From TrEMBL:
Keywords: Hydrolase. This is HIT family hydrolase. The active site is at H99 (tele-amp-histidine intermediate). It comes from the Bacteria. Residues 4-117 form the HIT domain. Gene3D superfamilies: HIT-like. Pfam families: HIT (PF01230). The keyword Hydrolase applies. The keyword Hydrolase applies. A motif (Histidine triad motif) lies at residues 97-101. GO terms for molecular function: hydrolase activity. It comes from Paenibacillus borealis.
Length: 119
């Protein structure tokens, strides 16, 4: 399926890359929701988290490791960050290609269940 992310992966849409290897691409979001807002995507097309197979689990783990690495490199690991995956239209997933938002660089607002009583 062709999406804005597949065009970014192939290079027909420019992006400001933060990380890239054979399997993963990370780049700055063009409409940032925080001072640091990086999108991390697999180069393999996976529509959403609902489409992840057992064979994809090493890739998902690698994405999380890349998120940690980027957080360190961008100086947000010590103060905190969010790694968000939206799955499906009700969650706000706008692009049907699995992706994670790495957000940080400021004190972020509370989310549902984001309190000591829910920890």
């Amino acid at each position: 399926m062709e999406t804005v992310f597949s065009k970014i992966i192939e290079g027909s849409i420019p992006s400001t890359k933060v990380f890239e290897n054979e399997r993963i691409l990370a780049f700055y979001d063009i409409e940032p929701a925080a001072p640091v807002h990086v999108l991390i995507i697999p180069k393999k097309f996976i529509a959403s988290m609902n489409d992840v197979t057992p064979e994809d689990l090493p890739l998902i783990g690698e994405i999380h490791a890349v998120a940690q690495q980027i957080a360190v490199e961008l100086g947000i690991a010590d103060t905190g960050y969010r790694l968000i995956n939206n799955c499906g239209p009700d969650s706000g997933q706008a692009v049907p290609h699995l992706h994670y938002h790495l957000l940080g660089g400021a004190k972020l607002g509370a989310l549902v269940g984001n309190s000591a009583s829910h920890a």
